[in-house]
Amino acid sequence: MAPTVIITGASQGIGKATALLFSRKGYNLVLAARHADSLAATAQELQSLGRPAPLTITCDVKDPSQVDTLVKNALEHYAEIDVLVNNAGIFASGPVEQFSLNDWHQIIDTNLWGYIHTIHALLPHFLQRGSGTIVNVSSIGGKVPTAYLVPYCTSKFGVTGLTESLQAELQPKGISVCGIYPNLIKSSFMERAVFRGKDEQGVTGRRQQLDNMLKNPVIEKPEDVANAIWDAVKHQKSEVMVGSANVSQGLYRLFPGLMKWVSQQGLKNQDK
């Protein structure tokens, strides 16, 4: 019987690229995202490529009841789940004092609690089987503290801690846990990103700043992250740094003060 993967944030970007790759590798797909129309478009694209139709489930990972329904429906449909790819996330940029508490909750509830919700719902199944793989798509922002990305880095450092502590506990029980750490990725995440500034001009400037960064031809693509996820699952790796994230991590280990200064200068925009 073909193995089955659940992918969150599967309607675009990294999630969509991962769905396409795992389908080519022969996996059954359970695709989750907030917007039914985007999920349907991804499903249609898969079928147009001659792939089996995925199970698509509209789900906001911030809501544990929706996540419970996602996992329940997936198990009812396929009986067994082999891999969970936690990918749903939101980016945020701006001076820390400009983020409201609602902003903080939105970012952490999506990027960290969303992962906790899916793991909490699916872990009993993995423990009962004595096998399974959890892949948490984090960010270099979960390894390297970066100015003007404070709520985002907070959430991603949380994902790093979640991933590494799960590894320590679950590996002896037959469950593999891996963290994926990309740098900036050329994808459609700008559509749902949170930008804050001291005024509207500041917000616009931050959006333009990130847009300019994404035009850099050396920036990795969603397919690069999808390949890293596949490599992690196939070889049961505990950590995969994607492309230029290796350089960022290496420089931070050698020159932490310099890297903090670079982020302060490079991302402060017109905010002082």
Structural summary, described in words:
52% of the residues lie in helices and 14% in strands. The chain has 272 residues and is of the alpha/beta class. The strands form two sheets. Strands 3-2-1-4-6-7-9 form a seven-stranded parallel beta sheet, sandwiched between helices. It is globular and about 55 Å long.
What are the segments in which pLDDT stays under 50 over at least 5 consecutive residues? none
**Structural class from helices and strands?**
alpha/beta
Number of domains: 1
Q: How are helices and strands ordered from N to C? A: EHEHEHEEHEHEEHHEHH
Summarize the structure.
This protein is an alpha/beta fold and 272 residues long. It has helices spanning 13-24, 36-48, 64-78, 101-129, 150-170, 200-214, 222-235, 245-254, 256-267; strands spanning 4-8, 28-33, 55-58, 83-86, 92-93, 132-137, 175-181, 194-195, 239-241.
